[in-house]
Each structure stands twice: as C-alpha cells, then as structure tokens.
Amino acid sequence: xxxxxxxxxxxxxxxxxxxxxxxxxxxxxxxxxxxxxxxxxxxxxxxxxxxxxxxxxxxxxxxxxxxxxxxxxxxxxxxxxxxxxxxxxxxxxxxxxxxxxxxxxxxxxxxxxxxxxxxxxxxxxxxxxxxxxxxxxxxxxxxxxxxxxxxxxxxxxxxxxxxxxxxxxxxxxxxxxxxxxxxxxxxxxxxxxxxxxxxxxxxxxxxxxxxxxxxxxxxxxxxxxxxxxxxxxxxxxxxxxxxxxxxxxxxxxxxxxxxxxxxxxxxxxxxxxxxxxxxxxxxxxxxxxxxxxxxxxxxxxxxxxxxxxxxxxxxxxxxxxxxxxxxxxxxxxxxxxxxxxxxxxxxxxxxxxxxxxxxxxxxxxxxxxxxxxxxxxxxxxxxxxxxxxxxxxxxxxxxxxxxxxxxxxx
Length: 410
Ligand SMILES: Nc1nc2c(ncn2[C@@H]2O[C@H](COP(=O)(O)OP(=O)(O)OP(=O)(O)O)[C@@H](O)[C@H]2O)c(=O)[nH]1
Ligand SMILES: [Mg+2]
Prior knowledge:
There is one protein chain. With 410 residues, the protein is α/β, with parallel strands linked by helices. It folds into 2 domains: 4-237, 3-Layer(aba) Sandwich (Rossmann fold), CATH 3.40.50; 256-356, CATH 3.30.1330.20. It is built from 14 helices and 14 strands. A hairpin with a 2-residue loop joins strand 11 (321-322) and strand 12. The longest helix has 24 residues, at 386-409. The two termini are 39 Å apart. The mean pLDDT is 92. Guanosine-5'-triphosphate is lined by residues 10-12, 15, 87-90, 127, 129-133, 158, 160, 165-166, 170, 193, 211, 214-215, 218.
C-alpha cells in the first residue's frame, strides 16, 4: 500500500481538513459499522492510502491535527493524533521559531511512517495568512525534508485576500513562507480566498457565509484532487504520477485548481467555457490574462452517464489550442462515484505561467509594507532577520522572472 499522511495546521488548515475528511469518510459507506449493498471494490482496494485500520473494518484518518483546540471529527480522528498549540498571533516568526511542539509533530509523523508499508508522501492543509499556518508549517516542512529528503510533500494552501486581508501583515507571512513551499519535491495546490468569494458570488449568485462556504468549495477541490489517489484505475493515481505529469518544470511547482459544478443540461457549454483560451472564471487563483499552460488535468466525478459527452468534448477539435496547450494534451478521468456535495463536478488542475499574477500581488503588498518598515518590530522580536525578508522576497521575484521567461520561450 502506498500511504499518504495528512497534516492540518492552524485554524484554516483544521477547518478545511475537517470538511475534507467528512467527504472522504462519506466515500466509504461500508466501514465503521455501516453497511452498504453496493460493490465498492473500486475504492476498497485503495482504502489504506488515507485510512488506518484499527480493527476489522474500523478505520481512522491517517491524520495529524495541529490546532489550539481539539475539535476533532469523532469517531474518525484518533485523540492521539491531536497536537495542541498556542496561537502564533498572525506572526510567521512566532509560528516558525516559537513553537514548542515541532519535534513532537515530527516524532508523530515518524511513528506514522513506521506503521506504513511504503509511504508515498505527506499532505498539509494550511493557510498562509496566520502565524501557525505559515510559520509552523514552514518549520514542519523543513524538518520533514531533513528527516525524509526523498519524500513528496503536497500542500493544500489557502492564500489570503490579496487586497483586503483579515490582518495587515499577511503579505509578510506569505513572503516568509515562500522559500519553504518553493522546494524540490513539493507541490502546492494554491487557492486564494478572494477567488472563493468570487466563485460563490458570481457562480452561485449569493454573498458567501464566511468561512463555511469557502471551506465547502476548498474541501470539494481537495476531495476532487485526492479522489485520484483513492479510486483504482484513475488518472494521476498516486502522488508521484501527479507530480511528474503536472510539474514538467521543477521550479514551477504551484498548481491552480479549478472547480466546476456540472449540470447534464449544460455539460458541453460548461466544458467549452472552462477549457478555452483566456481566463476561466472558475480558476481559484488570479492569473495573467495572457497565460500559457504547461500542464493540465481534470477529474470528473458523478459523470459516468455522461462519459460519451465528455469523451466527445475532448476528442473533438483536436487541433484546438487552449492557452498555448493543445487540447488533446489535457488528461482527464471520470470517476464513477458521486462527489457527496454536488451531483456532478469537475476539478481541474492547471500549471500555468499566469500564476505570476498571484505572486506579483503579494510581492507588491510586501514591498509596500516593508518600504514603510510597517510592523517589522513584531517579526524581529520573534527572531526573524532582515535577511530572511530580503532572501524570501528575492526568491519570489526569481520565480516571477522564471514565469516570464517560460512565457516568452513557449
Ligand atoms: N478559506 C478559509 N480561510 C480561512 C479560514 N480561517 C482563516 N482563514 C484565512 O486564513 C488566514 C488566517 O489564518 P488562520 O488559519 O486563521 O491562522 P492560524 O494558522 O491559526 O495562525 P495563528 O492564529 O496566527 O496561530 C486569513 O487569511 C483568513 O482569511 C477558513 O476556515 N477558511
Ligand atoms: Mg489561529
């Protein structure tokens, strides 16, 4: 079995993690005392990827919850997998340097690893706006890399609003985290809160309720992406395949999810709207108007009856080019089971030079704050040095330049 260990760190990481695990457990209607008449062999085969079997047909999540309070998902989370932390007060420095539980988290990860047959990687849900999700996550990534240098780490990362964040120092937290995300053998599924807002406002035509609506979508994306690791015979069936298919250029390791709720009535129109030249409204990060895709994949769920329509959409107009990528290069798979939260959905993953715009947004805000020396003493007081700021911002600028070079060279 190729197992994945999931960690959820901070308020946002735990809220999204919890919503995600609820979805996962709904996918297994035959465990923990529940019965189902259906044949679930297609999912049973890979049940050990995410779940630990405690006793016959009784499973818990292979999860480590790092949070200020134990709001666990009973009975699916084991109390031994909860690590209590103090809030890092929205300060990356406090999360990175001030944590007294970093070694305990790594010990827990090590003991979970030892119980695995063949670990395929770690997954981390977190946000970059607060101090724990940014700083403690950076520390944990660094320590995991020391301990398991060859293992893949896959981040499900919520980026703060790029204009009107909850707290003014968010651009510092994003920038200081950047070098820890942008490392070999990491992939980051990047979601911006403002894009979740826009999605609900424009696609669902209502004002979102914070954060329940956001987390509903973010968890649906996470379940959509990870369903390929949980169902047999799917595209990108393990982390390694996903990383090698979606990150042809190692330094471009940020992936943008795109979430779409599908209706049988408008299936073809919806697919034409999301897979077309330009910017799809369903992309969950801000991207440049002129962008070039370097890789893309899509997982459909609950669409089995529409296999023919989906195949014919991708097989028609095979000369069509979508943001510089031939349509025929988009890999897709259709998973039989319904997605729990909506009858039919598509979750795409895009690797695009357009991600430059997301990074530019935070870097500009970072410079605007840093130029005025705003709030710096809070960070210096926690052990962050001016060099840390400068090096992180430079690294971010280098990646922005890489995106520009790749755009110009394609
Ligand atoms: N989508 C979403 N975003 C959230 C949620 N909770 C907080 N955020 C965003 O995440 C950032 C704050 O991060 P938190 O996760 O609250 O902070 P933390 O990791 O607990 O860090 P500290 O509180 O400083 O210890 C802000 O940008 C919020 O807008 C949530 O449940 N869902
Ligand atoms: Mg918090």
